[in-house]
Design goal:
The chain is mainly beta. The protein contains two helices and eight strands. The longest helix is centred in the first third of the chain and has 8 residues. The two termini are 26 Å apart.
């Protein structure tokens, strides 16, 4: 039922040229910001096309394993969290629609 509600009310995509910003925070390795011009409709497409992320396909979409050459360490319960304006995104990168001017954060997080 929840899946059907999501499909009905999920945010739409926007065609055409967009500019998005992605800030990467990797614990003690500091922060780096990337800006992309794209015609893509989903965040994952932009990030994989620009080789910023690597991931694995799972039952909920792409699970990000590596960002900017920094791999999450399962033994330390690390994972990459996607936020937009400081609020956690509840979709995988490949299912997150983007709009012109969007700003995302990818943060290496410890603890499940």
């Amino acid at each position: 039922m929840a899946g059907l509600c999501y499909l009905k009310f999920k945010p739409g995509t926007t065609e055409g040229s967009k500019e998005i910003t992605v800030k990467v925070s990797a614990l003690d390795q500091g922060e780096e910001t990337f800006t992309y011009q794209t015609d893509a409709e989903y965040l994952g497409e932009v990030l994989t096309d620009n080789k910023l992320i690597e991931g694995e396909d799972g039952q909920y979409g792409m699970f990000i394993t590596t960002v900017n050459h920094v791999k999450a360490d399962d033994s330390k319960q690390q994972w990459w969290c996607i936020t937009k304006g400081g609020e956690q995104v509840n979709t995988s990168a490949d299912q997150t629609p983007i709009q012109d001017g969007d700003q995302y954060e990818l943060t290496l997080t410890e603890g499940y």
